[in-house]
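Q: Hi! First time doing this. I have a protein sequence and I read that you can turn it into a structure. Is that right? Here it is:
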Amino acid sequence: MTRFPAFTSSRPDPGGRGREFGTHWGAAVRANHDGYLRLFEACGAGPGKVRELAERALAATAAWAPALAEEIGGIAAGCGLEPWQVAAVNARTEILAALRAGGEGECSTAVVLGAGRSPRTVQTWDWHDHLRDAPLLWAFETDGGRRVRTFTEAGVLAKIGVNGAGLGVHFNILRHRSDHADVGVPVHLVARRILGEAATLEEATRIARSARTSASTVVTVVTLEGVRALEICPAGVGVVEAGANGIGGVLLHTNHFLDPGLARGEDLGTERPGTYARLRHLEERADGLADPDLTARAGAMTCHAPVAPVCAHPDPELPFDQRWETLAVISLDVAAGAMRVHRGRLCQVAGTTWQTF
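A: Yes, that's right. Below is the predicted 3D structure, encoded as structure tokens:
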């Protein structure tokens, strides 16, 4: 089984860190940008429209977190792209929301708490199979001295990850009727700022609520003290605590809103109701998802049911923009400030396929 490439930055300053990353991973960033341009075009947006939306995202980022905009600019300088082009991959969720693109990938997340131990977590990361070579693992230290490790895509400042303060984030896409084309702060950058600055659930919640967003996502924040799902959308940020599914000490999430108020504006679940069946599958496997062995947890999560596969296999008969695949399985160890990552589908997990980062 192949492993994801990994990189450790030596520069703590945002611009320098970005330039170093862009110089080292320039080919990967450019390939990821080209892959997204292809996807955006299939969804109805040519380069001119993408540039317009990406520049809005960059302006919103600069107003909300100037250091993150500086880091995007550094990556662009290092790899020979324009800042808007790197902003486009960071804002890919926002651009797809603006285009009202359907068929987003189907990630599933499970977190099980236990007294006196680190939470047991696992999630699938499903996305378009033509972008399967985009992910990588990135370790860096912020200029404030916070250590961060993230599973992300080339050029994207963060996605799923853990920091040295004992906090981690899982990441699932959502879609809400309030999503709109006046592009705001990218949700991936909300996750990055949480990883870079937060040490508690409350700090993470404040950061999420401070951003003006235009697209939806759930960031599940995990600490030694507990877990909280932050359902982010333009209509607000919903907070879902462990036990919301009626199972004590357990927080499960797929791709629909659980907050009762925000659920009234659910958009993705109306198109892809399999998300509800996947959540029921996780609920039925809650005991297995608490197993101390990560490979056993992945096995408990695995499901190939036609209506709601937790392990996604691409259908070669579909157009590329409607195909997705489980490209990674990730678990966070917030106590150790580390992740374990499997490259490939959930049904391919074995004890020897985990990569510790």
